[in-house]
Design goal:
The structure is a homodimer of 490-residue chains.
Chain A: E1 3-7, H1 10-22, E2 26-30, H2 36-50, E3 65-68, H3 71-75, E4 80-83, H4 89-100, E5 108-111, H5 118-122, E6 131-135, E7 145-149, H6 156-168, E8 172-175, H7 185-201, H8 207-215, H9 218-221, H10 227-234, H11 239-247, H12 266-280, H13 285-305, H14 310-322, E9 341-347, H15 361-378, H16 383-387, E10 390-401, E11 410-421, E12 424-433, E13 436-449, H17 460-473
Subunit structure (chains A, B): Homodimer.
EC number (chains A, B): 1.1.1.108
Pathway (chains A, B): Amine and polyamine metabolism; carnitine metabolism
Chain lengths: 490, 490
C-alpha cells in the first residue's frame, strides 16, 4: 500500500490528503497546529461527500489516516511528500530540509506553491532532484488540474513517476515546460483579478455583475474548451489563421488598463496556428461545434437540478413556458378530466441520447418519473406540500419499450389513473411522438410520511383531487399493456 | 406574434435569429449577401439541434423565417431590431440610419457590438433613445449572457422592456451600468488573451497546454461561480476581507506582463467586501461549498458522457479501477459463472439524488441499464462489437423499489440470466447496499441489427458465452419478484 505524507493541513493540504486517502493510500498528516485534525475534518467530509461521485465504479477502500508532530515519523518510508505550508520561501526551505533529513531519497517531493519556481525551492536542498512543483486547484479532491513543474535540476524520471501517480488518483497532470512565476493558470487569474479590481474601483460593475458576466458566458465555455480551441471553433472552417487575421494582438482595440501586448509578427501567427493545428487538427470544425454544443448542453442541464447559475435561468424560462397550461395546472383548474392528462411535453435533449442519437433506456423512466411528479403536483402534492412532510414513493414500475425516438423530437406523456384511493396510487403513462407510441410506464405508488418513511394518509385536498380523476378515468378502457409481467404472452 | 429583424447574418446574427425563431417569434433577416440564407443554415441547424435541450418543457412552435434585401420590408412593424454588422463605426452608423428611417419609433434597437459604446453608436442617430448595446456570446442560441448597455441617452423604459423580452427567450440580461469599451466580459477575455500570447511567444506553454490549464481547473469553477464568489467560498468562514487581506491587489506578486494595478486602499477593500456580502451574504460559506461541489460534480459528470475534457480524465481513471476485475472481464476470463455476476459497483453520485439525499427513481433504471451494458460486454457485446452493427435493445423492464439509498453509498448490482437463447435475453438484476436489498430490475432484451433496427441473430461468440452462463444460472432458484406484474399480490 502506498503512503503519502501531507505537510501542512488546511484547505489545500486537506484536499491532497483526501484525494490520496479516498484512492486507497495511507496518509500521514504533519502539521504543528494541535488543531490540525479538527481543521482537516471539514475538508475530508466535503471530499467523502463529493469525490466518489466522479467515477461510475467504486473507489478502493480508504487508506489509514494518521496525524504527526514528528517529521521523521511522518515521512519515513513514504512514496510521496506534498508540501502545502505558507507561501514564504524561508518557511518552505526549512520544511523541505526537515523532510529531506528523514524521507526516502527516491520519494516524490511535490510543493503546492502557487508562486515560487522549483529552482527557488531547491536552493540549499540536500537532494534538489527530488523536488518539483505540483500545483493543485481548489477543491483538490475534485479539480483535475495539477501543474507539474520541474526545474532543470529535477530528476525527470521521478517527474514521470509523479505524473503516473497523479493520473492514478484521477488528476490531470500538466507538465509546465519552463518554470515561471505562478506557472500558467494563476497568471490568467491574476490578469482577470486586476481588471476586475479596476472595474469595481471605477464603478463600472459590482462583484456580482462581474461574476455573472463570467458564469453566464465564457465561464461555461471554458469548462469544456480553453481559449484557443474556443476561437478555433468560432473561426469556422477558415480556421485559426482567419480568426487571428481578424483579431490580431488585441481582440479588438487596446481597451484594458493592461498596457503591455506582444507584437503580432508573422512568426507569432505561424507559431499559434501551428500549435492550434497540432492540438485540434484531428477534428473538423463541424465536429468541434457539435462537441461544444453537446458539452454546453450537458453542463448547463446539470445546473438545472441545482437551480444554479445558468441552470436557474433555464428553470425560470421553463416556468414561463409552463405557466397557464395544463403543465402547471392544479386539478381544480381543469373542468374536464375525463381523458388521460398531458403531464410531459418536451424535446428529447442531447444528453438523453446515445452516440446513435436515440434516447437511452433509463431516460424513458426519467420522463415517466417527470410525468408522475407532474401528476402529483396536479393533485396537490407539489413542492410546498412535500415541504410539509408528505409525498408519494414509487413501489413498482413496468416499462414497455415500443419504439425509438431521436434527440430533438418532441415527446408527450399522457397519464391515466388506474386506481387512486387511500394511500395508493396506480398510474399508467403513455409516451408519444405525435401519434407514434414510444413506450408505456405503469407505476404503483404509496403516499408516505417523509419523517417515518412509512405509508401515511394523504391530505384531504389530495384525496379529493385524486378521487375525482380516478372516478372519471374508471370509465376509460384499460390501456394496452397494463398489468403485464416481463415476457408474458401478449 | 412578435417579430424580430436581424440585420446581418453570420454566426452572431444567425444565433440571434435562431434564438428568436425557436422561441416562436417571426424573424426577418436582412443581409445584402445573396448567400445569406445559405450561410445562416448551419447556425440554424446547430440551434435546432441544441437549444430545445435546455428546457424540460417544449418550446413554442417555430415562427416564420424570411430573408430580405430591402430595409423597409425588413423592419416595418417589428418589435426588435438586432444589428450584427461588421465592427466598423461608419458601417454601423449607416445601417442604424437606414433602420431608423423605416422601423417603428418604439421598437428596440440592439447592437451586438463587442467594442463600441452605445453613445458612439448613437452619434447622428434620428432617435438615439431607441439604441442600446445587447452584446451576446457565441453560441447565441445557448449562452445565457447578454450584456445590455444603455447610454445616458437611451430610453430606460425601453431597456427594461428589452430585458423582459430577453428573459422570455431564455437569456440572462446583465445591465452594464456605465458604458465602457468592450463592456465587461470581453475585457477579461482580452486580459487573458494577451497573457496567453506572451506565454506562447516566450515558449512557456503551447496553445494546448494553455487550454488544458483553463479547462481542467478554474474554467470548470467559473461555469458555476465567478471570480469573487469563488474567492469568497475559498476564504472560508473568515470571508472576503480575510481573503483580500491575504492576497491584496496581486493574488501573489506582480508576476504578469500586465503592469497596471489599482492601489489597494481601505476604501477599495470596503467596497469589494460590501458588494460581496450583498451578492452572497444570504448563503453561509458551508452552503456555498456544498453548492459548489454539487455543481462541479454535476458538470464534470456530464462531460463523461461525451468523453471530453475533465470527463475524459474521469473515464480514464474509472477504466483503471475496472481493469483486472470482473467489472472489465469477458465471460471467458471467468472460471466459475454459477452465481449471479457482479455487474455494477459504484457510489451513488450526488447528482443522482434529490434534495433529501436519496437516489431518484429514474437512476435505479440507469444503474440497471449500466448493469445490462456490463453484462452485454461480458458476453462479447462490447463497444467494438456494437460498432460492427449489432446490439441488444430492451423491450420490457420491471422494477421493484424495495428500499432507499443515499448519496455516497456503495451499491452493487448482481445479474442472473433467466433465459438466453437465439435473439432473446432475459436478465434479472438485484441492487444491494451491502446485504440490504434496494431494488430489483427484470429486463427482456432482443438482439437487433443496428442497420435494420429489427431482431437479428447474435454472433456465435456471444451465443456461446450467453449459453454457458444461462445454463449455469438455470440451476439457481428463481429470484424473488421475477415474473411480477405491477400491483400483483405477493
Amino acid at each position: 500500500m502506498k503512503t503519502a505524507a501531507i505537510i501542512g493541513g488546511g484547505v489545500i493540504g486537506g484536499g491532497w490528503a483526501a484525494r490520496f486517502l479516498l484512492n486507497g493510500w495511507d496518509v500521514r498528516v504533519f502539521d504543528p497546529d494541535p488543531e490540525a485534525e479538527a481543521k482537516l475534518a471539514p475538508v475530508l467530509a466535503q471530499a467523502r461527500r463529493a469525490l466518489p461521485s466522479l467515477t461510475d465504479v467504486a473507489l478502493p477502500d480508504e487508506g489509514a489516516l494518521s496525524f504527526h508532530f514528528d517529521m521523521a515519523e511522518a515521512v519515513a518510508g513514504v512514496d510521496w511528500i506534498q508540501e502545502s505550508v505558507p507561501e514564504r520561501l524561508e518557511i518552505k526551505h526549512k520544511v523541505l530540509a526537515s523532510v529531506q533529513a528523514h524521507c526516502p531519497p527516491d520519494a516524490i517531493i511535490g510543493s503546492s506553491t502557487s508562486g515560487f519556481k522549483p529552482s527557488e525551492l531547491q536552493e540549499g536542498a540536500a537532494r534538489p532532484g527530488q523536488i518539483m512543483v505540483c500545483h493543485p486547484f481548489n477543491p483538490v479532491y475534485l479539480m483535475p488540474l495539477i501543474e507539474v513543474v520541474p526545474s532543470p535540476a529535477t530528476d525527470l524520471a521521478l517527474v514521470e513517476k509523479a505524473e503516473t501517480i497523479l493520473r492514478s488518483v484521477g488528476h490531470f497532470p500538466l507538465r509546465v515546460r519552463k518554470e515561471i512565476d505562478a506557472h500558467i493558470a494563476d497568471r490568467f487569474l491574476e490578469a482577470v483579478w486586476r481588471e476586475a479590481l479596476w472595474l469595481v474601483k471605477d464603478g463600472v460593475a459590482t462583484t456580482e455583475e462581474i461574476d455573472e458576466a463570467i458564469r453566464m458566458g465564457f465561464g461555461i465555455r471554458w469548462a469544456q474548451m480553453g481559449l484557443f480551441d474556443t476561437y478555433r471553433t468560432a473561426g469556422g472552417e477558415a480556421g485559426m489563421r482567419h480568426f487571428m487575421a481578424q483579431f490580431g494582438p488585441a481582440l479588438q482595440w487596446p481597451w484594458t488598463k493592461l498596457m503591455d501586448v506582444p507584437e503580432f509578427t508573422d512568426e507569432l501567427v505561424d507559431l499559434i496556428a501551428g500549435q492550434s493545428d497540432a492540438q485540434s487538427g484531428h477534428m473538423s470544425i463541424a465536429d468541434m461545434l457539435k462537441a461544444r454544443d453537446d458539452n454546453l448542453v450537458g453542463m448547463m442541464r446539470s445546473l438545472k437540478a441545482n437551480d444554479w447559475g445558468a441552470g436557474a435561468v433555464m428553470n425560470a424560462h421553463e416556468a414561463s413556458l409552463r405557466a397557464g397550461t395544463v403543465l402547471a395546472a392544479h386539478a381544480d383548474d381543469l373542468d374536464d378530466v375525463s381523458e388521460p392528462i398531458l403531464t410531459v411535453r418536451r424535446a428529447v435533449p442531447l444528453d438523453w441520447t446515445d452516440y446513435n442519437g436515440h434516447m437511452n433506456e433509463a431516460r424513458y423512466l426519467q420522463a415517466f418519473g417527470d410525468a408522475t411528479d407532474r401528476f402529483m403536483a396536479l393533485i396537490g402534492c407539489d413542492a410546498d406540500y412535500i415541504a410539509t412532510g408528505g409525498s408519494y414513493f414509487t413501489a413498482e414500475t413496468h416499462i414497455r419499450h415500443v419504439d425509438e425516438v431521436h434527440a430533438g423530437a418532441v415527446i408527450e406523456v399522457r397519464t391515466q389513473v388506474l386506481a387512486g384511493a387511500g394511500k395508493k396510487m396506480h398510474l399508467f403513462h403513455e409516451m408519444y411522438e405525435g401519434t407514434r407510441l414510444l413506450a408505456t410506464g405503469e407505476h404503483f405508488l404509496l403516499h408516505v410520511s417523509l419523517e417515518t418513511r412509512r405509508p401515511s394518509e394523504p391530505s384531504a385536498g389530495i384525496v379529493a383531487a385524486l378521487t375525482r380523476i380516478a372516478s372519471a378515468h374508471a370509465a376509460l378502457p384499460a390501456p394496452d399493456g397494463a398489468g403485464r409481467a416481463v415476457g408474458q404472452r401478449p
